[in-house]
Amino acid sequence: METFVARYRSAVTAVVSGFDRLVFRGTLLPLVMERGMHTLLARVGVRLLDLKDYAQETSKAVHDAALQEAVVQRRPIRYLESARTDTEALARRLLAEQPVDRGLICALRTVEPCMSFEYHRSPDPAARGLRLRPRKCLHIYKYCAGRRGRARPGSARRRRAAPASTREPPCAGRRRG
After folding, report:
1. H or E, element range at 7
2. Of 136, 134, 155, 160, residue with least CA distance to 57
3. What is the residue range of 62's domain?
4. Angle, CA of 131, 135 and 137, to the nearest 5°
5. Helix (H, G, I), strand (E, B), or coil: what is residue 108?
6. Which residues contact residue 176 at a Cβ distance below 8 angstroms, ignoring those fewer than 6 apart?
């Protein structure tokens, strides 16, 4: 944690710690509104007709970045067939099978409901545009071992469209060593 705080000292205003686990969840509010998504696409130079390709490329980059730590550290990555799977029990089992004192235990992938934009085509120009609609999206959960080797959940969400919500893993600021 000290390394993380030292690295980002100019941006850190406070440090929060907890007994067992911390999960930070935030929503990029402008991206869950049509106007905000239009602003983002204009700033990055993406036409509405190219939204699908841009979203897929962005999703792939987020997915790869979320799993990079597990790949580099050769930690288990599992796809869950059901969102009802007890992820904490699975993380504990994987920790028992492949022990680690501290840091990433595993990354778990599953499909869950989410909201995502799509470009609606229509012969009527007034009816064309972005629509926010329910979909099934891939979510990635990271579990990390704390000081006592307990499994702690964290996650990073990947959406098929530009991500509008993220969750930071609690082990992101841990010491490497």
Report:
1. helix 2-7
2. 160
3. 19-168
4. 125
5. strand
6. 3, 103
Q: Write down the pLDDT at residue 26.
A: 59
CA distance 63 to 110: 12
Any residues with CB less than 8 A from the CB of 170 and at least 6 apart, and which? 21, 22, 23, 24, 144, 152, 153, 154
Mean pLDDT of 97-126: 89
Beta strands in the chain (DSSP E): 24-27, 77-79, 103-120, 129-145, 151-157, 165-168
pTM: 0.67
Which ranges constitute the DSSP H helices of 13-107? 34-44, 51-72, 87-97
- Residue 148 burial class via C-beta count within 10 angstroms: exposed 0-12, middle 13-18, buried 19 and up: exposed
Judged by average pLDDT, the poorest of 38-42, 150-154, 170-174 is 170-174
d(CA 136, CA 158): 11
> What local confidence, expressed as pLDDT, does residue 147 receive?
57
Q: Is residue 173 part of a domain?
A: no
Q: Does pLDDT of 166 surpass 70?
A: no
Which two three-digit tokens encode residue 149? 């080797």
pLDDT at residue 108, rounded to an integer: 92
Judged against a pLDDT cut of 70, whether residue 143 lies above it is answered with yes
Domain count, the chain: 1
Distance CA 123, CA 71 (A): 46
